[in-house]
Amino acid sequence: MLARHHAQMRLTFLGAAQTVTGSQYLLETDRARVLVDCGMFQGSPHDVLRNRVRFAYEPKAIDAVLLTHAHLDHCGLIPHVSALGFGGPVYATRGTVELTRLVLLDSAKLQEEFAAKHQRFARKHPDRAAVEDRAAAAELAAATDEDAERATRDAPPEALTYLREPLYTTANATTALDQCTGLEYGVETEIAPGVTATYLDAGHILGSAIIRVRARDNGGDRTIVFSGDLGRPNTPIIRDPTPVRDGDYLLVESTYGGRTHEPQEDAIRMLGECVSAVQGATGVLLMPSFAIGRTQEVVYELDRLLSAGTIPHVPLYLDSPMAGGATEIYRKYAEYFDDETRALLAKAEAPLDYPGAVMVTDAQASQDLDASGPRPFIVVASNGMITGGRIVQHTKALIGDPAMTLLFVGYQGEGTLGAQLQQGAKQVRIDGQDLDVACQVRSISGFSAHADEPELLAWLRNFSIAPKLTFIVHGDPAAQIAFEPKVKALGFATKVPRWRETVELA
Ligand SMILES: [Zn+2]
Questions:
Q1: What is the pTM of this model?
Q2: N or C: which end of the chain has fewer CB within 10 A?
Q3: Domain span at residue 41?
Q4: Can you say whether residue 415 is alpha, beta or left, with left for phi > 0 and alpha for psi between -120 and 50 degrees?
């Protein structure tokens, strides 16, 4: 529990601290407690276990949650915190609220399915399940403790059966969704006693926001800017990130610290080449992609390439029911689009559609596609890092096929199957099977929904006065090590917070 014996305003880093998932920050004043994002840890098994670690605060005591955008690693634990007693409002842009509905209901369903599978296994093999539970419990204890070895030693001897329970249910998600309230961009709104929030375009996915928080208490006024996930300038479909000129404190993401994306034109050209190559080889182009944001952008670019006559018309399968739902929500929010996309709409073009694209809704149809789908074809399936979702089965089925091109168009977190493949692994393990990699593996970084290092630095240069302190968050350690000196060189005081670290906002 956090100490509350003095009134200093403070911030605690509960996720996305030296990693890219689990975004969650707790802002406390002497009058209010506000969470900014409440995301799920994804990626390596060690990271995922952190979702089970007890919250560092009393959920009942939270006044409000501010959500930057609908990705699971930013909103995924909201039903959990709600089920444990948080009954206040969850604020987000209206577009984010709608997308969050898709994400949380899907997440709850996956939780329930996974738990049911685990329970069946435990009934059949109680001894093995007990061993696994004990290992998981030890790892969980280690995950919470700085001294991992001691924690492992001290882990309770009996199995912790709650580790087999879903983190939350569909009913919990529904309750949490009822707590969501839609806000407009650019309108300062009081969200807790003495705390206001203004949502600004982040240019990352539809509805995504930078949040400017103003907090007032006996110690005075502070403005804290949360960058959220920052998009790139000239990103397709949605508007660019908003320049921010001032703030006492800043949290800036650093996913692509130390890295530069290839120019967008090159990315589009490479995408075209991959489609054409697959056409030639009568092969398959498999693109792991997050259902929200990336999928719509990839479809947009494929449609542009097709309209320009750059690529042949290769059949496209969108194999993610969630992506279909997300595209519907994108269509509803043309008010969030940039000028270019609005101009296409005005000309009666359909920039979010690829002619003849097939939405694969049925799971069996998804599995049949690899073996019997008429080639060539393109599959865009989620999730983007091959840590779950239908992309896993496609990868498993096609990884040994030299006529398949596996094309990465997004960030691959450390420890994920996607990262392993991207780094050139010759053999990978999927569902307990060792599989040889015979397919082509390519990567395009130019479609990233995240700003690269020069773009992050350019965004930081908009500040007319450097914040008192800039927290570098949402990055793997290597990216943060590369990025921090460059932020310092701009004249910013910086800090890379540790997981669960609390910092006073003087
Ligand atoms: Zn995101």
A1: 0.87
A2: N
A3: 10-130+165-258+450-504
A4: left
